[in-house]
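Quick one: structure for this chain?
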Amino acid sequence: MQVRFDNTVASIADVTNAVKEFIEIFETILDSQWQYIAASYQLAGTTVSIPTAIPTQPTPGQWTQDQMRRPLQMTFQGRSVGGRRVSLSLYGHTISQTGDFRITKGENPNVDSAVIFLNQTNANFPGTFLAIDGLDPYWKEYANMNYNSYYERRARA
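Got it. Here's what it folds into:
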């Protein structure tokens, strides 16, 4: 997961806490082996990643995904007032694929809670989860589901 943030407004600890709270929304539906592997950040205009502490590990559900579900991603999308796009993808969840590849408002309580959380980050975690232009986005009230090509190819190997 990559999160764009403004380091003049939010500290690394603020971003870590925001990510932790976002992931906690999905705790009960995460694969039993889900965990943070690493965390790092980059300052604007640099290509150097700086390691940082990972958030407290969530307590995932008791579900175990089969190989076919591992490339499944849930993507939240939005736009800033400047019209620039933002997206955020989550892997390792156990939500079933829907017929239209989209989970809309009211279809899943975890997705509903995640959209509310993302749309309140400006108030609760200012300077985090920003669009590419550095502005606060409005997150759309759905999550798209699809298979990520990179992980799909890895599963085939």
